[in-house]
């Protein structure tokens, strides 16, 4: 049995540190897990009219359907995000909102979630991570307790090949991913 993990990167920037961290994290999953980045770049800005059948001239975008189906088919989701103006980047909030509707079929519901935040500064995206937890708090998503992963001064964490340059950080991330994988295995989302 393979467990599918959707990895969502909260940055659209080509050289994003979050994306590099996510790619490193993907390699740390144990055997039996398949983690891959689910792109959020092309998701149209959330508009509830799309989820309102009475609004006939705004049909549900195929990108919404595809994203929701991908998340619903996942066994876990790992968010890797920077911080914009003390909260999560708009692209990530957009994805959270799209996955949160319709109310009768919420893609996030009960899905185990891991969160890694980073910042080029000292705070490691603390406020971003806390805001992401707040945004997800309605969906009963199991998350690992400790440690929380705030990666600070991210440019110094990544080497020229895109790998994590410090062994201690690799070990820290490995421990977190192992705990998250364990959570995915032990707290699976109930399937209908
Ligand atoms: C619009 C904007 C707002 C930002 N706000 C914050 C912030 O509140 N806290 C912080 O630590 N860094 C902030 N930054 C700096 C980001 O941490 C930095 O650009 C980082 O490289 C973005 O992550 P990425 O490399 O994954 O794209 C901000 C950057 C932008 C472009």
Describe the 3D structure.
- The chain has 5 helices and 5 strands; from the N terminus they run βαβαβαβαβα.
- The chain has helices spanning 17-26, 62-72, 90-99, 126-136, 167-186, and strands at residues 3-9, 33-37, 76-81, 113-118, 149-151.
- The protein has one domain (3-186): 3-Layer(aba) Sandwich (Rossmann fold), CATH 3.40.50.
- The longest helix is centred in the C-terminal third of the chain and has 20 residues, at 167-186.
- The protein is α/β, with parallel strands linked by helices and 192 residues long.
- The mean pLDDT is 97.
- β1 (3-9), α1 and β2 form a beta-alpha-beta unit.
- The chain has a 5-stranded parallel β-sheet, sandwiched between helices.
- Residues 11, 13, 16-18, 82-86, 119-121, 123 line the site of flavin mononucleotide.
Q: What top-tier CATH class fits best?
A: Alpha Beta
The bound ligands are: flavin mononucleotide
The largest sheet, given as strand count, sense and whether it forms a barrel, is: 5 strands, parallel
Classify the oligomer. single chain
Mean pLDDT: 97
Low-confidence stretches: none
**Apparent shape:** globular
> Into which percent range does the helicity of residues fall?
25-40%
CATH topology call: Rossmann fold
Return the CATH architecture: 3-Layer(aba) Sandwich
- Secondary-structure-based class equals alpha/beta
Number of strands: 5
Classified in CATH, the superfamily is: Flavodoxin domain
Strand arrangement in the largest pleated sheet: 2-1-3-4-5
Beta-strand portion reads 5-15%
The tally of helices reads 5
Q: Secondary-structure element sequence?
A: EHEHEHEHEH
Count of discrete domains: 1
